[in-house]
Amino acid sequence: METKIIEHSKAAELFIKDEKRTDWHNETLWFVREKRDKAAFQIPDWELLRETASQIKNNVLSNMHQYLIDFEANAKNNGIIVHWAADADEHNKIVHSIMEKHGVSQMVKSKSMLTEECHLNEYLTEKGIDVIDSDLGERIVQLRKEAPSHIVLPAIHLKKADVSETFHQFLGTEKGNNDPKYLTEAARHHLRDTFLTRKIALTGVNFAIAETGEFVVCTNEGNADMGVHLADVHIACMGFEKIIPQRKHLAVFLRLLARSATGQPITTYSSHFKKPGDGKEIHLVIVDNGRSTQLGREDFRSSLKCIRCGACMNTCPVYRRSGGHSYHNAVAGPIGSILAPNLDMAKNADLPFASTLCGSCTNVCPVKIDIHVQLYKWRQKLVKEGYAPKSKTLMMKGMSAVLSNPIIFNLAGKMGRFVLEKMPGLVSNGFNPWYKQREMPAPPEESFRAWYQKNSTASKDKNNEQ
Amino acid sequence: MSSKANILEKIKQNQPLSVSALPDLSFLGLENYENLDKYKTMLQSIGGDYVEVANYEAIIDFIKKNYNTEKRIITTLPELSQIAATDWANDDPHSLKNVELTIVKAHFGVAENGSLWVTDDLLGQRIAVFIPQYLAIVVKKDDMVTTMHQAYDRIGNQEYNFGTFIAGPSKTADIEQSLVLGAHGARGLIVFLMD
Q: SS3 letters for chain A?
């Protein structure tokens, strides 16, 4: 989807035009955040669990090379066919070549953010392959020709009336029937036919275990399993950072994942794929696509610890009020904003600025990624390397001139107070970005400096009297 | 150089210089639940339900009363052959599309999240627990562990080709966060807790 990119702040501005809908979006995601809290509080050792997960992932980052070698060897022993892809293009070519080899032109897919990152659907569609996404949320946005707006809840930006309209158009459901149960049932029938007729099914990977060569896929709907167990060929795609050392470490991550994501104690299905069934094939595509570069960035490498739970999005005050699409990246929200600049600094320079740096993302992250610290560090790196948004650079230069010269600073303060008091229209207008959704403050009568000079003399005199 | 060699070389160069240690897991999972009680509560909270039974006769009675036995019922348990087919393991998986109810056995249940661990040697076919309209799983009351840590201790180095934790019926909340049971997998899960 190589459409023109709209900067985050501009896209957010469009999003919040509908105030009621913005409030609804904000509240819906906060509701998910609250469910996460309730689930987390039921585990007395939740913080120890997070710390443990973080340490396991640190170990993985520091021993990635060996774990990948071990994983590949064990997976091959299990009869899994392993492929390596340096970038998105090679990943897409590998997937397509497997389809060509089997002479198959239809695919059923379960959720994989990696394939979104690689734009696999567009690639395969151009090659004449019919791709159907089987996660309900993904199917909804696919029918609408949209991208998922959230990594766990792909259609969270839509209301049931929108879904009803889409299903009426494409699946022939009753017009105006907005009952989620009715709409889900329609999707169940529609996708059941798909599952029963596809020879190749593609899934993502949540965890890959170096010690055993198996991988785990988690879903609530059962769509990954419905697809692969009815197909002849299972293609699983993973970024290399999905590796964990041992089977027993799954306990830590499966306890954290669903609780952090949706507040469930575990997803409905946590399927462990170790060996293909009789007469079937499992292909595993291990993808780099910039990850090895990120691994070499000391300040940002811990972003590769992410297990894609989406908790940072649900809690983020900016994400909740700007929507996933405003991030123009497969992974939105705070974590997406520290992953995206690694892929393309010029294209994604706006994203680390789409944050208040409040730190809520860091507080809920199940693997303790210091997300808000990295957002701050990306800003500095982007400005230094000349990628910062123009308006920000100009303003910063102006600010630095004012702040570094006491005479100008003094004058600027006087001007500001004068303007706010006598000519408020000069700043309280649409040209001032700070005036949007805000009232300008009432100006103080004098500067702090003037106040201090007056009052400190007074108190000195008082002291002298004693 | 192949992509594999390139990727691995770049990872080797870029990964942190010293290996950070793996943490000790022995301080986790020390929750002190009454496993069976906790299991029942959790199962119901995720949309499943349970029936306590003394033997397979009780299961047969329950199924006769609560399911349409005219429809296709399959099982891997010979004890239930009176009410369910047992000769389907080698059939084309697609032929199971009209199954109303599948009944299988689980290795054990996990109290903290209401899930059950099953592997393909218990399933007949991998698809058998995903494709039916309804699913029933038999587990011994004694076969309960407290948390996922004990679950993986118990799994240990168990050999399987495919295994899955099943926690309740298939579900989705993708339409305006409204929970709907029966997305693509089973619409309902009943667990037979056996003495």
A: CCCCCCCHHHHHHHHCCCHHHHHHHHHHHHHHHHHHHHHHHCCCCHHHHHHHHHHHHHHHHHCHHHHHHHHHHHHHHCCCEEEEECCHHHHHHHHHHHHHHCCCCEEEECCCHHHHHCCHHHHHHHCCCEEEECCHHHHHHHHCCCCCCCCCCCCCCCCHHHHHHHHHHHHCCCCCCCCHHHHHHHHHHHHHHHHHHCCEEEECCCEEECCCCEEEEEECCCHHHHHHHHCCEEEEEEEHHHEECCCCHHHHHHHHHHHHHCCCCCCCEEEEECCCCCCCEEEEEEECCCHHHHHCCCCCHHHHHCCCCCHHHHHCHHHHCCCHHHHCCCCCHHHHHHHHHHHCHHHHCCHHHCCCCCCHHHHHCCCCCCHHHHHHHHHHHHHHCCCCCHHHHHHHHHHHHHHCCHHHHHHHHHHHHHHHHHCHHHCCCCCCHHHCCCCCCCCCCCCHHHHHHHHHHHHHHHHHHC
